Amino acid sequence: MSNSDLRYDIIGIGNAIVDIISHETEDFLIRHQLVKDSMSLVDEQAASAIYDEMHPAVQTSGGSAANTMAGIALLGASTGYIGKVKDDELGKFFVHDIEAIGVDHLVKPTSSGPPTARSMVLVTPDGSRTMNTYLGASSTLYVEEINSEAVASADFLYCEGYIWDVETTKKAIRLAISIAKEAGKKVSFTLSDTFCVERHHQEWLELIAGPVDILFGNEDEYLSLSGCQTLEGAIDWIRGQVEIACITEAQNGSTIVTAEHIIGIDAHEVDRVVDSTGAGDLYASGFLFGLIKGFDLQICGKIGSQVAAEVITHTGARPQSPLAEITQMY
Amino acid sequence: MSNSDLRYDIIGIGNAIVDIISHETEDFLIRHQLVKDSMSLVDEQAASAIYDEMHPAVQTSGGSAANTMAGIALLGASTGYIGKVKDDELGKFFVHDIEAIGVDHLVKPTSSGPPTARSMVLVTPDGSRTMNTYLGASSTLYVEEINSEAVASADFLYCEGYIWDVETTKKAIRLAISIAKEAGKKVSFTLSDTFCVERHHQEWLELIAGPVDILFGNEDEYLSLSGCQTLEGAIDWIRGQVEIACITEAQNGSTIVTAEHIIGIDAHEVDRVVDSTGAGDLYASGFLFGLIKGFDLQICGKIGSQVAAEVITHTGARPQSPLAEITQMY
Questions:
Q1: How many domains does chain B have?
Q2: pTM score, whole prediction
Q3: Domain containing A262: what range?
Q4: DSSP-assigned letter for residue B235
Q5: Residues belonging to chain B with any Cβ–Cβ distance to chain A shorter than 8 Å
Q6: Which of A6, A286, B242, B303 has the lowest CB atom count within 10 Å?
């Protein structure tokens, strides 16, 4: 594409990861001392040790912000993605999938350094997912690799909290945030994981008080961030700190909080939760797509719930059905 | 394992392949001039050209005989598998999955030569699968790599017709067949694909008149092999040529033919066929498991239908649910 017509509705930035997913019992988590429903960073050796004991796996492209961009592209908006892979087999798989779904991949795969990131995702019988991520090449995203023109062109920037775990990528995301703000664009941010919130508590409080306009997270993440004991307390705490805060609450739906309004959104019903991986990511897809289209917040939340419902009914964190019919409802 | 306690219920031999599966419209097949529901051999470049146009894909371990062995292991019999991969990412994925399911992988991954085999599997909305296979490392299985002690130990040998396409692997499978026969064991064989039957017609007629005891194939494959116009004609033709012939007929179930009996087996009902990849392979799993356990042919066929039904209700050619409950029914 020529630089002159570079314009996106939204650009996402995050760790570019391939998910290696298997269904395991709770015993597996206990045996490996894993905290259910959380993400642990592991080195290549530990990832391999877990993999050795896993059942046969399905491999699908993942990465939180990448999943969100994939959902938005399927809904019909123009999206770009900043996340780094190596040009190895997993990297080619990741790039193929994100481009096939219609997202522009804006970082050249590297030919040196660690291999493409992978996450060993253990899905337990209740549909919970416990992730063990080896960051590999994704942790080598440098500030020079942020396509500033693309970021400045987009109405929204979407940032993944996970990327805060590495100093190199944190610098890159901070640059992207400053480019977006200077261009007068909206910055959205997802809290990603309770442990992530704990690791970066002070910095994220400053970020939320500063450049972040739209905040995503689940109930536990908001409790951890706010230091509150109850959801009501956390709602009260976040209210007015950011323009829009979305709190996802699994089967209890979600709450959208602005300075003026608190809007409750029902969860979209499903027969059975097969694999909850990507539920939060795809809620963000639906919600942000609604904002891009200028829908009111209630509709944005409803689209979020619908898209999240699609992704939890099958194995893998990206939609397997066309989502266009959802948008035709509004 | 020490060589002294080497003993298997069954050993399978075939092309060790990783499936890269996407859902596509019929238009995709027309555009690429692909024959629906068949397997085409492609070179690395052609595989890559198809991949470039595919939707986001799911990657799962496949390979016809490997799928059959996986099903038998899940049902609870002791199985080994002879099929070659390279020690690259796809090869490690394949070996992990087959061992995790409980099958002994009996060929050392190679560190040189072409990469691990992959098949681009295009699933159309009716659940049909059209495969484009790059054989890579799987086509370099040499006679020296046949573990003769393991083959001789097994009550059954299971051979995949696909492997006949390459002179090297054909020699290896012929050796395995002669070892099994000399040890007084049963040889089973699957016709794999109509085009495969056409390519090897004369040799397979001799094989069936010779060492093959149990033959698997679908209706089209039997018609092509027999030269008959009708299923009745083909049944009449195969009757008595092999000890047991199984003819799978998709939603119409299957027919088991021996010199004395023709047994009709109903298909096991499913709500929706998501992806028919592996249906024939897993029918063979169920049937052969029944034989291993000494069940009568009607029960063998019923188990075959049940196991095939499991695999067509999700994407991917290997079972995703435990199969032990099926065997507890008999």
A1: 1
A2: 0.88
A3: 3-14+64-112+141-328
A4: H
A5: 22-23, 51-52, 54-61, 70, 88-90, 93, 96-98, 100-101, 315-316, 318, 320
A6: A6
